[in-house]
Amino acid sequence: MQVAIPLFERVTALDAVGPYEVLQRIPSIDVVFVGHQRGEVRTENGMLGLTCDATLDEVGAPDVVVFPGGVGTRQLVHDEAFCVWLQSVHRNTKFTTSVCTGALLLAAAGLLEGLTATTHWSAADLLNKLGAHYVPERVVEHLSQRIITAAGVSSGIDMALRLVELLVDRPAAQAAQLLIEYDPQPPFGSGTLAKADAATKARADEYRRSRN
Q1: Is the domain defined by 2-185 classed in CATH 3.40.50.880?
Q2: Which residues are catalytic?
């Protein structure tokens, strides 16, 4: 079973690597990183490089797509090659999914038209403008449409575990969770807009603007 994870300049590392760490634990799943061309792309802050192992043309029939987000998605929504590729491969995928602002690409390709979906909280308005209906949930499923979206960054791990359950079975997902020792116990209760206080939101906005 092939899972394609697209990469592009200014991708958020954990959006791609979080699901990868879950999915690659399953022996029946092969993960391939795809992009416009083979070779390195740099993450949104430029500090980390990730490698595309195949071009979009070389991966024409993946079983699953996991589209990560990042600052680079703001330009990528106008990229015809990625949108056409998504439209093409989605016809035959078991699931087409996104993490964070990767949802903007699914929406730009017309895959979220009229559907509820989630993304990073800072991109909610952009997602709505592209035809989806943002909801502040961690993972949103439309199984009959074979679409799953995950909220910001770390939520991709949750989505990937759910994908393993859907693709294989619950024990496989639980085994993957154990293998990565995923047992969240965050030291602070500020992981969503609903939980964060005003000072935390202000600092988060300050940091976010410095990366744009």
Answers
A1: yes
A2: 100
